[in-house]
Amino acid sequence: GQNIDQPTEMTATEGAIVQINCTYQTSGFNGLFWYQQHAGEAPTFLSYNVLDGLEEKGRFSSFLSRSKGYSYLLLKELQMKDSASYLCAVIGNDYKLSFGAGTTVTVRA
Amino acid sequence: GAGVSQSPSNKVTEKGKDVELRCDPISGHTALYWYRQSLGQGLEFLIYFQGNSAPDKSGLPSDRFSAERTGGSVSTLTIQRTQQEDSAVYLCASSLRQGNQPQHFGDGTRLSIL
């Protein structure tokens, strides 16, 4: 089976940096995705990592270490609109996407 | 279309009734996925299609759930004899092909069973 863990909640101040960690134990590995989901809306794609290292995309960066089964999503220069749930998802050998339960990030003024 | 379209956006029905949920994927996307998301929970995989075939139905909760896809495009998820525990948001996603491709989600159907 697939096991994907991420913190339930995080709170940060506007303008700050927040790092959301995700650890996984899966049957094989074919990539890791991060999605953002605002309350009542559909998840939207943020990033994809399949090789070790850091992928930067504007204020958001995602890091992967396959040997450690670990990823993080880094959100810089936080804005109020970044308040949302962030979902870590892994593709295993069956090429099926398995999601973590999500991390709710609250940005405070 | 420009994005994944799902209908209806909201459905309220009585326990025991059948419901049919529709998903229209992004044009050209061969892979289509159905998920269920209960309040405060992660996404639960239900079924995926590659073309019109469903290689993996392992996530369907019971034999009351079925899905089909025709013409490699529109898919319908049918729930027969609905139960209160079926209340959830049903999300559809599509990707260019099955595998390590980003999945693009529709806005979902919020199903409430009274």
Describe the model.
The complex is a heterodimer of chains A (109) and B (114). With 109 residues, chain A is mostly beta strands. Helix content of chain A is 0%, strand content 57%. Chain A has strands at residues 3-5, 9-13, 18-25, 32-37, 44-49, 53-57, 60-65, 70-75, 84-91, 97-99, 103-108. In chain A, the strands form two sheets. In chain A, strands 2, 4, 5, 9, 10 and 11 form a six-stranded mixed β-sheet that branches. A five-stranded antiparallel β-sheet of chain A has the order 1-3-8-7-6, with no helix packed on it. In chain A, a hairpin with a 4-residue loop joins strand 7 and strand 8 (70-75). The radius of gyration of chain A is 13 Å and the shape is globular. The mean pLDDT of chain A is 93. With 114 residues, chain B is an all-beta fold. In chain B, 0% of the residues lie in helices and 50% in strands. Chain B is built from no helices and eleven strands. In chain B, strands 2, 4, 5, 6, 9, 10 and 11 form a seven-stranded mixed β-sheet that branches. A four-stranded antiparallel β-sheet of chain B has the order 1-3-8-7, with no helix packed on it. Classes of the chains: A mainly beta (109), B mainly beta (114). The interface between A and B is medium-sized, with 22 and 20 residues.
Relevant terms:
heterodimer; A: about 110 residues; mainly beta; B: about 110 residues; 7-stranded mixed β-sheet; about 50% strand
Structural class assignment of chain B: mainly beta
* Pattern of helices and strands of chain A: EEEEEEEEEEE
Low-confidence stretches of chain A: none
**Tally of strands of chain B:** 11
**Radius of gyration from the alpha-carbon trace of chain B, in angstroms:** 13 Å
Average pLDDT rating of chain B? 92
- In helices, the fraction of residues of chain A equals under 10%
The largest chain-to-chain contact, stated as pair and per-chain residue counts, equals: A-B, 22 and 20 residues
Q: Profile the largest sheet of chain B.
A: 7 strands, mixed
Summing up helix and strand content along with how strands pair, one would put the structural category of chain A as: mainly beta
Q: What gap, in angstroms, lies between the N and C termini of chain A? A: 40 Å
Radius of gyration of chain A, in Å, reads: 13 Å
Q: In terms of per-residue confidence, which ranges of chain B show pLDDT below 50 for 5 or more consecutive residues?
A: none
